[in-house]
Design brief:
Largest sheet: 6 strands, antiparallel
CATH topology: SH3 type barrels
Strand content: 35-45%
Strand order of the largest sheet: 1-9-8-7-4-10
Number of strands: 10
Number of domains: 1
Order of helices and strands: EHEEEEEEEEHHE
Helix content: 10-25%
Radius of gyration: 13 Å
CATH superfamily: mobile metagenome of vibrio cholerae. Integron cassette protein vch_cass4
CATH class: Mainly Beta
Distance between the termini: 23 Å
CATH architecture: Roll
Number of helices: 3
Structural class: mainly beta
């Protein structure tokens, strides 16, 4: 996980993408329900929570970046690789790893 960075740091990376990525909706809170390790080797334990800010996918590099805010003030990037044998299983089954926190509404 890369960060923290100031608000808006990665906005250009995800601003042209839709506000949703699969079950993740921009501005809503989520928690890790199944631990995983990201591309950078950082662990995301069960219970880790953050607000989803957006995403960027790079098919050329087999990559997916999720942009999140853990504290509501700064931003982090969670990099995942869709290349077989890396985090492809996590990306394919993201809803098994990350679930809505509370009722899923913004700020919940």
């Amino acid at each position: 996980m890369t960060g923290p960075r100031p608000p808006g740091h990665w906005a250009v990376a995800f601003s042209l993408n839709p506000p949703t990525y699969r079950h993740l909706h921009r501005g809503r809170r989520y928690r890790v329900v199944r631990a995983f390790r990201d591309f950078d080797g950082d662990d995301h334990p069960v219970g880790e929570a953050w607000t989803f800010l957006g995403y960027d996918a790079n098919a050329y590099h087999d990559g997916l970046s999720l942009f999140v805010s853990v504290d509501g003030a700064q931003e982090w990037q969670i990099r995942l690789s869709t290349y077989p044998g890396h985090q492809d299983e996590i990306v394919r089954n993201l809803a098994d790893y990350v679930d809505a926190l509370g009722d899923g509404s913004p700020g919940a």
